[in-house]
Design a protein that fits this description.
Largest sheet: 8 strands, mixed
CATH class of the largest domain: Alpha Beta
Distance between the termini: 37 Å
Helix content: 25-40%
Number of strands: 12
Bound molecules: iron/sulfur cluster, magnesium ion
Radius of gyration: 21 Å
CATH architecture of the largest domain: 3-Layer(aba) Sandwich
Structural class: alpha/beta
CATH topology of the largest domain: Rossmann fold
CATH superfamily of the largest domain: P-loop containing nucleotide triphosphate hydrolases
Shape: globular
Order of helices and strands: EEEHEEHEHHHHHEHEHEEHHEEH
Number of helices: 12
Strand content: 15-25%
C-alpha cells in the first residue's frame, strides 16, 4: 500500500566528541491523507529528530541520516533532487515548532511573515498576499484578524503567537502538517484550545497531521493512531482507543499509569521508575529493561524487534502478549 508520507527504517546519528549517538534506530511510521498520528515520547527519545529529518533540518553535521527512506507520495525525499525536495518542504509538508516567540521575527509584522511564502513561492502580489494572510488568521481563529495583521509578534499572547505560526504553516495549503510540541510553552487552557484548533483544521482542510508530543494526556482527542518512541525506536504502534484501553508495551503502560484519567475511578498516579537512557551508552538488550517491571534475563541480552501483536498494532517487547493480557492488573 502507498501512504501519503511513509518513513521506513530511518536511522539518524549524531557524531559528537564523546562518540556516536544513534538518535534513531530504524524508525518507521506513516500517515495517510487526512489522518492524524501522534508520535509520543520523552525528551531524548528521538521524536523530534524524525520530524527534523523529514523537514531537512538534519542535513548538516553533526547529524547524519545513516539509513532508511522518507517517501512522500511514493518518492524518497532522501534521494530525490534538491529542487524537488525544496518544493515539498514547507509547501506540501509544513511544520509548526514549539517555540513561537523564537521562530517569529520580532521586527516584521505577523502579516508580513504569514504572507512571505505567498509572495516568494507563489508570486502573489503584496496586496493579495496580505488579503490571504487575513483569511489565514481568521482560519486559525485570531479575533479581529483584519485589525491585527499589521501588529508585531510581541503584541500577541503566547497562544495567539502559536496561531500565527500555524497560519504561516498553512499558507501554502500543505497536505501534511507536522506539529512539534506545539503547546508546551502554553498554559493548560490555551493548550486545549490549540489542540482543538489543530483537530478542526485537520478535519476541515482534510490534511494529515503528525503531532509530536511528550504528553499522552493531550493526544486522545486529536490523534487516530499513536507511535510510542523510546530510546530512538518505536516501541508500540496502535490506534488511540486500543492503546488507551489496553497498552501493549510496558513503557506505554507506565505512561498511562502516570496521567490522570477521567475513565478510571480512584486511580493512583504512578510515575515510571528510573531515568531515560543515556543515548551515548544505551543499555544492552531491550533499552527499557532497567526501568521495566516485566523484565526477565532475556531482556538484558536480546533487543526485541517491533512485531505485530494484533490488528494494526505492534509492540517491541518480548512479553507483549503478557502485557496485553493484563494478567498483572
Ligand atoms: Fe520490558 Fe523485556 Fe518487554 Fe523490554 S522486552 S519492555 S525489558 S519485558
Ligand atoms: Mg523535541
Amino acid at each position: 500500500s502507498r501512504h501519503l508520507l511513509d518513513v521506513r527504517d530511518l536511522r539518524v546519528e549524531f557524531h559528537t566528541h564523546d562518540g556516536v549517538v544513534r538518535a534513531l534506530n530504524g524508525v518507521s511510521y506513516y500517515v495517510n491523507a487526512g489522518e492524524s498520528l501522534a508520535v509520543l515520547g520523552e525528551s531524548g527519545s528521538g521524536k523530534s529528530v524524525s520530524a527534523q529529518a523529514i523537514m531537512g533540518i538534519l542535513d548538516t553535521p553533526p547529524a547524519k541520516v545513516a539509513g532508511g527512506t522518507i517517501r512522500y507520495r511514493g518518492e524518497d525525499m532522501l534521494t530525490m533532487r534538491e529542487d524537488q525536495r525544496r518544493r515539498i518542504r514547507g509547501a506540501e509538508i509544513a511544520m509548526v515548532f514549539q517555540d513561537a516567540l523564537s521562530a517569529l521575527n520580532p521586527v516584521f509584522t505577523v502579516g508580513f511573515q504569514i504572507s512571505e511564502n505567498l509572495r516568494r513561492r507563489l508570486g502573489m502580489s503584496k496586496s493579495d498576499a496580505y488579503r490571504r494572510a487575513v483569511e489565514l488568521m481568521d482560519l486559525v481563529r485570531i479575533p479581529a484578524a483584519k485589525d491585527r495583521v499589521k501588529d508585531f509578534p510581541h503584541q500577541f499572547s503566547g497562544g495567539m503567537r502559536q496561531r500565527v505560526m500555524i497560519a504561516m504553516a498553512l499558507a501554502l495549503d500543505p497536505a501534511v502538517l507536522i506539529a512539534d510540541e506545539p503547546t508546551t510553552a502554553l498554559d493548560v487552557t490555551v493548550q486545549a484550545q490549540i489542540m482543538d484548533l489543530l483537530a478542526d483544521l485537520r478535519r476541515d482542510l482534510d490534511m494529515a497531521l503528525i503531532l509530536i508530543t511528550h504528553d499522552l494526556g493531550v493526544v486522545a482527542d486529536v490523534a487516530d493512531r499513536i507511535a510510542v518512541m523510546y530510546a530512538g525506536r518505536i516501541v508500540e504502534n496502535a490506534n488511540v482507543h486500543d492503546l488507551y484501553s489496553n497498552p501493549g508495551h510496558p513503557y506505554t503502560e507506565g505512561l498511562l499509569a502516570s496521567i490522570p484519567r477521567v475513565d478510571l475511578k480512584g486511580q493512583q498516579l504512578k510515575s515510571i521508575k528510573g531515568m531515560p537512557p543515556n543515548m551515548l551508552h544505551p543499555p544492552s538488550g531491550c533499552p527499557f529493561h532497567p526501568r521495566c517491571t516485566y523484565a526477565q534475563d532475556i531482556c538484558t541480552q536480546e533487543d526485541p524487534p517491533l512485531r505485530d501483536v494484533g490488528v494494526q498494532r505492534s509492540s517491541a517487547c518480548h512479553y507483549a502478549e503478557e502485557v496485553l493480557d493484563g494478567a498483572r492488573d
